[in-house]
Amino acid sequence: MLFSLAAIWYLTLRNGLLCQASSSASNDLAKDFPLPEIQRFWGSYTPYFSAQPYTPPPSNCRISQVNIIQRHGARFPTSGATTRIKVAIKKLQSATHYTDLPLAFLVNYTYSLGKDNLVPFGALQSTEAGEITFKRYQQLISQDNLPFVRSSSGQRVVDSATNWTAGFSFASGHVYNPTLSVILSEDLNDTLDDAMCPNAGSSDLQTDAWNAIYGAPIAERLNAQAPGANLVAADISNLIPLCAFESIAQNATSPFCALFTPAEFAQFEYFADLDKYYGTGYGQALGPVQGVGYINELLARLTGKPVSDNTQTNRTLDASPVTFPLDRTLYADFSHDNQMVAIYAALGLFNQSTPLDPTMPDPKRTWITSRLTPFSGRMVTERLSCRKKGSGGHLVKSGEYVRILVNDALQPLTFCAADKHGLCTLSNFVRSQGYAINNGEGDFEKCFA
């Protein structure tokens, strides 16, 4: 099982035998993983890294509650992606000959990746995330107040949740042993998956437009180097990810990485940005509403009040103090990248002054998928109790505050008048979430109308 495999990898790493396998609690994972330059352009297939160093709260503030939502760890390609990848590989291998040395490996190449499930590195990512969480927030934990852990029911998500609990337990010297308490079925109401809006559109129009622009020249180049391959632009967005998938799965540089330039990887990154932005993000009319249920659960935890929601929540589970307690100080939920994007958009994070242009990347955009939802990416919402300092203090008054970090990067939260430390008053934060409080302001009904 992946749980056991993660524990083995984790202990091996601790003994110094896998120096290149992962990050540590204090070091950026990307610095240790192969290909440190191009891996930041792997979009949603990027290994987790801290977008910024974690910033502790001001000295006059004490963290009183932590809410984590985290993507599963690195995985094999999905079943659908596997089919598309194999088609592109078959085209390359049908070439009559290769005129460029980096393509020569295709003569004896056999595709060997699995489907859907975590790779060992992905299992390790979640284990380490659990360790980091314990070290950062251990003051909130006691035997009577262990983390409350939920997961969507996809196997890679469940495995990530149990790997996280293993890492948390290991970091505590097995003094605190949280368990996965609730698994939300992806066939029923589920705030940790984006499967409840059948009328939502896709990002195909936008990604196809960018594919035609950036993929066509690459396909032309590869066809010249592999006569008879007959690649088309769309094949490029299936071949570039092989660099990421094989490198992560095999902990070694995939030969596919040498087929593309750093500039071409950056173009693929924009393909991934468009996919998420127009999939469940701001560019999709029914994208943000898919994050409303989780936000209403988050507000319930922050305020200690019952969940009020008429969208994706499982009302039976959320009404029970056993399956949705309101008295914990640390909550950890495990989810998918598309759902986390919907939550960001519903919250108001990473909003762009203008929509992403499918024909022209904006170098100043903040919507960059590798920083939003890398493998094992996470959003952390901290509730803080702050006291007023003297004349030099930054707080106007004592009270409860909220701040949000995405992959350790402190978010500005301009939508609730945050101060320079990223702190909003709890009351302002709640008021800022009118879209969720109002159940998507009619958008959820459009999912089914």
* Major sheet size, sense and barrel closure: 8 strands, mixed
What is the assigned CATH homologous superfamily of the largest domain?
A: Phosphoglycerate mutase-like
Task: Give the helix tally.
Answer: 15
In the CATH hierarchy, the third-tier topology of the largest domain is known as Rossmann fold
Tell me the strand percentage band.
Answer: 5-15%
Structural class: alpha/beta
Keywords: Disulfide bond, Glycoprotein, Hydrolase, Secreted, Signal
Main location: secreted
Pfam families: His_Phos_2 (PF00328)
Protein name: Phytase A
SSE topology sketch:
Layout: H1 2-14, H2 29-32, E1 61-71, H3 79-93, H4 120-137, E2 148-152, H5 155-171, E3 180-184, H6 204-225, H7 233-250, H8 262-277, H9 292-303, H10 315-318, E4 330-335, H11 337-347, H12 369-372, E5 378-386, E6 399-406, E7 409-410, E8 424-425, H13 426-432, H14 434-437, H15 443-446
Please characterize this protein's 3D structure:
The protein has two domains: 327 residues, Rossmann fold (3-Layer(aba) Sandwich); 114 residues, no CATH class. 38% of the residues lie in helices and 11% in strands. Strands 1, 2, 3, 4, 5, 6, 7 and 8 form an eight-stranded mixed beta sheet that branches. The longest helix is centred in the middle third of the chain and has 22 residues. With 449 residues, the protein is of the alpha/beta class.
